Amino acid sequence: MERATPILDFISLGIFVTVVIGFVYLIIFIHDIPYEQAKKRNHPQQDAIHVAGWVSLFTLHVIWPFLWIWAFLYKPDTGWGFETVSIKDSPEKQNEIKELKERLTVLEEKLSKKEEVK
Question: DSSP characters for 29-54?
Fold first, then answer.
């Protein structure tokens, strides 16, 4: 018995190829989420997160949850969030910085005089 047209075969093949391409795209999209968040937060190690995301893609996303945590720990306004230091608002810190700069210039002058003597 012969079939007249294999049109359903071509339709099912087209659906299958579309689903496979969509699945591959979805996996790549999901693996890139930590990198996109790191880029949005201006994370200092965003390139490392990106590379580790590709490594995670080839290791079946074993390290992907750790990348997610790594990308989300850094916040743009507070950094890592362990300690907040505001030097600009503190006059005591400004005075201390000024004194340290003065001491540094004095030490640089002494060092340059010693080098001239040699």
Answer: HHHTHHHHHHHHTT-TTHHHHHHHHH
- Structure token digits, residue 51: 């590379």
Confidence of residue 1 (pLDDT cuts 50, 70, 90): low
**Alpha-carbon separation of residue 66 from 32, 74, 77, 79 (angstroms):** 13, 13, 22, 18
- Kindly list the domain boundaries of the chain, sorted by start residue: 7-82, 85-118
Structure tokens at 72: 């989300």
| Prediction pTM value | 0.59
Q: Is 115 helix (H, G, I), strand (E, B) or coil?
A: helix
Distance CA 32, CA 38 (A): 10
Phi-psi region of 90 (alpha: psi -120 to 50; beta: other; left: phi over 0): beta
Query: Which residues are bridge partners to 79 per DSSP?
Result: 75
pLDDT digits (tens, 9 = 90+) for 25-51: 999 899 899 999 999 989 999 999 999
Q: What is the C-alpha to C-alpha distance for residues 81 and 73, in angstroms, rounded to an integer?
A: 8
